[in-house]
């Protein structure tokens, strides 16, 4: 992880939620966060249709059909623990249809030319014919290449409709055009949860999902810096 400039993890669920419930005062009342965390919370909006706020290391964005919780500082597993406390213990009746465990990282390569070589390895321009040749330039300002590359594989461990999805694109966080953004999503469909439910599934699968994602980030870092 030496060349990782920024990283984070998130749990995203689809289903039916009541955004008005989700606010720091409720989390503190239920013993999910501490009084100090409640006091230091930063509120963006609390509304019957959307709740968006931040406590130290965690960001919440809750809408009627989508719940997301972003861990912006380690230990990332705290997001999984909190997801279980909310939906496995306090709101066990809340219907959830699918869950994604996500990990992202911005990695730093040596220079723009190295990033461009990685891009060419992942997305060659020759199959694009004449259009591809328009991308073939040595100068950064006139060269072209991929802006977003996404790969998907069905993954039966994540349920019949489950998958692992990996996206790469130039980083907008690493300066000097030398960074790559990598996002890994483990999507779990409803049949993956079984009788135990999604809160238990997230608690069980979170560490393995993050480990697999970090291995992918390591792979692309090694590949990129060897280009």
Give a short synopsis of this structure.
The protein has 227 residues and is of the alpha+beta class.
Radius of gyration: 20 Å
Number of helices: 7
Q: Which strands sit side by side, in order, in the main sheet?
A: 2-3-4-5-1-6-9-8-7
Secondary-structure element string: EHHEEEEHEHHEEEHH
Query: Strand content of the residues, in percent?
Result: 25-35%
Unreliable parts: none
Structural notes for this entry:
The chain has 227 residues and is α+β, with helices and mostly antiparallel strands. It has a domain at 102-226. The protein has 7 helices and 9 strands, in the order βααββββαβααβββαα. β8 (163-170) and β9 form a beta hairpin. It is elongated, with a radius of gyration of 20 Å. The chain starts with a strand and ends with a helix. The model has no long low-confidence stretch (mean pLDDT 95).
Topology:
Layout: E1 4-15, H1 24-29, H2 35-40, E2 42-47, E3 50-55, E4 58-63, E5 66-71, H3 77-90, E6 96-108, H4 112-122, H5 129-133, E7 149-154, E8 163-170, E9 179-188, H6 190-193, H7 198-226
Antiparallel strand pairs: 1-5, 1-6, 2-3, 3-4, 4-5, 6-9, 7-8, 8-9
């Amino acid at each position: 992880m030496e060349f990782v400039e920024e990283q984070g993890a998130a749990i995203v669920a689809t289903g039916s939620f009541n955004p008005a419930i989700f606010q720091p005062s409720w989390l503190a009342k239920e013993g999910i966060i501490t009084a100090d965390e409640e006091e230091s919370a930063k509120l963006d909006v609390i509304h019957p249709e959307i709740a968006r706020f931040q406590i130290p290391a965690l960001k919440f964005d809750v809408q009627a059909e989508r719940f997301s919780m972003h861990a912006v500082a380690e230990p990332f597993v705290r997001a999984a623990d909190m997801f279980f406390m909310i939906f496995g213990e306090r709101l066990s009746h809340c219907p959830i249809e699918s869950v994604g465990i996500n990990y992202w990282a911005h990695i730093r390569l040596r220079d723009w030319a190295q990033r461009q070589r990685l891009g060419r390895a992942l997305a060659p321009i020759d199959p694009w014919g004449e259009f591809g040749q328009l991308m073939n330039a040595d100068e950064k300002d006139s060269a072209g290449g991929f802006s977003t590359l996404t790969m998907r594989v069905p993954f039966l461990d994540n349920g019949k409709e489950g998958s692992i999805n990996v996206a790469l694109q130039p980083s907008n966080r690493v300066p000097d055009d030398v960074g790559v953004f990598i996002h890994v999503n483990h999507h779990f469909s409803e049949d993956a949860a079984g009788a135990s439910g999604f809160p238990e599934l997230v608690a069980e699968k979170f560490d393995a999902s993050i480990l697999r994602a970090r291995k992918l980030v390591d792979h692309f870092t090694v590949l990129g810096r060897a280009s």
